[in-house]
Amino acid sequence: MMEPIDLNKLLLLSHDEFCRRVEKIRVCMSEAGMSAVLINDNANTYYLTGRVFSGYVYIPQHGEVIFFVKRPVKLEGDCVVYIRKPEEITETLGLNVPENIGLELDITPYSAVERQKKIFPGSEIKNASPVMRKARSQKTAEEIDKIRRSGIKHVHVYSRIPYLYNEGMTDMELQVEIEKTSRLEGCLGQFRISGDSMELYMGNVLVGENADAPSPYDFAMGGAGLDPSLPVGANDTEIKPGNTVMIDMNGNYNGYMTDMTRVYALGKIDPLALKAHQCSIDIHRALVDMMKPGTEAKVLYERAEAMVKERGLQDYYMGHRQHAGFIGHGVGIEINELPVIAPRSRDIIAEGNVIALEPKFVIPHVGAVGIENTYAVYADRVECLTPAPEAISYFMI
Questions:
Q1: Which of 120, 235, 271, 356 could disulfide-pair with 259, CB 3.0 to 4.6 Å?
Q2: Which of 226, 224, 199, 228 has the alpha carbon at shortest distance from 214?
Q3: Which residues of 165-190 are buried (b: 16+ CB within 10 A; e: fewer)?
Q4: pTM for the full model?
Q5: How confident is the model at residue 95 (pLDDT cuts 50, 70, 90)?
């Protein structure tokens, strides 16, 4: 049952929650020497209001936040100003033009940036994208609760996967059944990804040799896909005995996502694949013990890499023909947030981070193995938000 939503209110967050999020942004703005920011991106407007709308959020270092709305019409709330075009923002701000203004330069088209610049004549232009990424990386208790609730549904869907298999099925046929089950459970279908040319539809199902197919996208695992226009994921491979089926499907049930991978199989699996899968589980245990506020993200990567080398599995780690350069990432409104668990990462683990760890392996002629879990980091503990069984599961025939 969905919670009732007052569709007339622009701000769907509580006043206290809204203030907490704005304060986090202002702290990051202060660190960046930023007088104000203008927010337009869907993920960021959702973060600030609890809804997606067409328009802008103007956040000064001091003073009231202003919501400039184009669509939908008739939204209500304090500091809501309706506009037809961005130039009308100037009329509201008047002479209160900031010394400098942060725009979302990493994700806003050039033409839109040039148009936004004209709203703030004389203001120095700065990049607000890192400010927003940093602020969103440390979740509030309310955000973690939404991710936890997504995780409960995500785990329930995965528990039904062994019963969705029918003899002779292909990876795509299985994925369709998982998508149906997930959507009926309430999955929104939306898979928000930040970054250049990052695309994916509902998740990834990799069977056998297809797990070894390199992809142009910066995901942990690839797959050839059904067509060169979307070269990732299932490619209509039949599920056969001896092959693994790695499932990494959409966990977005309320605007905040969990990221979870589990492995399924039909019949006996090569001992090397079982060894690598256990290594993935062991890496999770080791890194969760280390994942405390103040820990360097790259130290987590180094520990995992050392464990892989100790077991002689480095040729299969994070791919075989093509290797991914990270083993974990933040998750929330988008599937790839801060921090990044990578060898050259400068990120520091902080209280409120929600992190997906995904040490995975590709075993030639068998397929992909390894697990992915989403974890919330607290001052004194780490909570697994995707507590599903981690051993390889076998399809029910």
A1: 356
A2: 224
A3: beeebbbbbbbbbbbebbeeeebeee
A4: 0.95
A5: confident
